[in-house]
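Researcher: Dear colleague, please comment on this protein.
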Amino acid sequence: MRLAEITAKHTKRNKIELLKEQRSYHDALEKLQHYAEQGYGSIAPEDMSYFLKCFGLFDRAATPERFMLRVRIPGGALNAMQAKVIGKVARDYGNDYIDLTTRMQVQLRYLRIEDIPALLGELEEVGITTYQTGVDNFRNILSDPLDGHAHDNIIDTYPIIEKMQSLFLKNDAWIAALPRKFNAAISGSHTNRCNLFAHDCCFALAEKGGEYGFNVYLGGKVGVLAEAANVFVTADEVPQFFRALMQVFRDFGFRDSRNKNRLYFLIREADMATVVQEIESVAGRSFKTAGESLVSLPRTDEASGRIHLKDGSYALQMVVPSGLFSGSAMIEAAHVAEELGNAELRISTTQNLYLLGVRQENIAAALTRKPFERFSNLSTPYFNHMVACAGSEHCPFGVIPNKPDAIEMAQYLSEAVPLEAGEKVRMHWSGCVKGCGVHEIADIGFEGCKAKVNGETVYGVHILLGGKSTLLNKNGYSVMRSVPLDKARYYVEQLMLGYKACKKTGESFEQFESRVFSRFSHAAIEFIMRWNAEIAPQLPEGAHLGFDPLQHADAME
C-alpha cells in the first residue's frame, strides 16, 4: 500500500493543525516587538501556547511572566565569541541561569518579554538563532561532541550538519510545517557519544565497498530505538536523503492524534520498506543498501578529564552536575578558550562542556582557571556521566524536582560507595514519563513518579537497569516501581556495593551489568536490593542470607 493511501485514513485534524491552518507563525514574529513594548498581558493566547514556541520561547507557569528560551547550537559547537554572548545575555536578562541540555543546546530562563527582541538580536549578531527549536519543527541536529577531533572519528560531520540545517532553517515553507517535532543525529565516529539511536533519524558511521559513509536508522523516540532502514549513504548524499525524508514526513505524516504523529507511527503503519521507497521516489534516485556498521566502541571518556585528540591536542572536560551552569561560567569558559588560542567549546549530550584544542603545555594552567575550579570532573565519577532534565521546578510535565534529586543521589553515593578514577556508572534522571533525561539507556535510570507511604502520596521514581550506549542503544529494564524518592538511594547503594566488590579491572558498570545481572531475573534483583537495604540492617548480627550474589559474582564464574 502506498503512503498516500495510508495517510488518507487519517483525515481528522488535531487542534494544533487547525490552528496552523488559520494563522501563520509570521504573525507572532511580527508582533514580538509589540509584545515587548506592551508587556506580558498583550500576548495573544495562540502565540503564547504555540507560535512563539517556533522560536524557542516558552511560557512557564512555575515562573510567572518569565520565559524559557531554547538556543540552537548545531552539534553543540560554539566558538569563544558565541559562548561569551550566550553568557552575557543569560547574565544580563536571565538571572545568570543556563541549562546545558541533552540535545547539546542551552536553555535560558527567567526572561521578560520586554527583553526578548534585544536578546535575540544579540544572539543573531554572532550567528546564533533560536528558530525552530520548539513544537513542529526539525530540532537541533546532534553529533559526537568530539566530532572532527577524536582518534576514532573517521568523518567530520559538522560541515554535513550545516548543509542539512541550511535546507530548513529560517525557511518559511518549513517553519511549523511538520506534523510533529523531528530529532536527528549524525556521527562519523566509532564511539556512540550522542545517543545516536534515540532519534527520528540518525546517520551512523558505516563502510561499504571500501567507502566510508553512514547507515540510516529511522523511527526512534522516547522508549523506542530507531530501526535500521537498510540504507547506506555517503557524506555527500546525506543532505539529499535528509531533505527527501523530511518531505515525506511533512506530506504523509499523520496529523490527527498529537500522541501518535511522530515518524515512528508512520513507519509502524506503513512498514520501513514502503517509507524508504517513498523517500527514494522524492529524491529521484535509489540509495545503496546498508553497509557494515562501524559504531562499535564503548565510551572511553578519560577519567582524568583530559581526552587526547588526533592532532596531538587535548579536550578538557568540565563536569556540570545536572547541566546547571551559569552565564558567568560560560563567559569564563570563553575567556579561557580565547587565552588558549581560540579553543573550541562543545556541549555534550551528558550536559557537560568540553574545551577542544588545548595543547599539553597549557593544560595545567587551564585547570587552575575558572570555571574548571568549580566544574572539575575529578571530584567523583558519579557526576561525570549524570544526566537530569528540568524537573517540576521548570517543566509543566515534571513530577519530581529531578535535578536536585540527581545531585543529592550522586553526593550520597560518593560518600557511601566511593568510586576510584576509571570506575564508571551512567545515571540518567527523567522528571516524568516523557523521558527527556533519556533514562532508558542509562546504566541506572530514574523516571519520576508518585509513590505511596502509609497512604500518603510522596515523590517517587521507577528504577531501571541495563541501558546500553555502545553499538545500538538498548533500553533498560525496570527492576523497581514507585520507590519513594528518599529511599531510592539505599537501593542503588546495594547495586554499587556489588559493582565495587566484584568488578573486573577496568570494567564499567555497563559491562558489569551485562556480565552479572543477566544471570538473575528482574524480580530476583529487586528482592536482593530490598532485602539488603530494608531487612538485613534490622536483623541480629550474623543473621543474613549467607551469600549476596550482587557482591560475590566472581564466585559464581
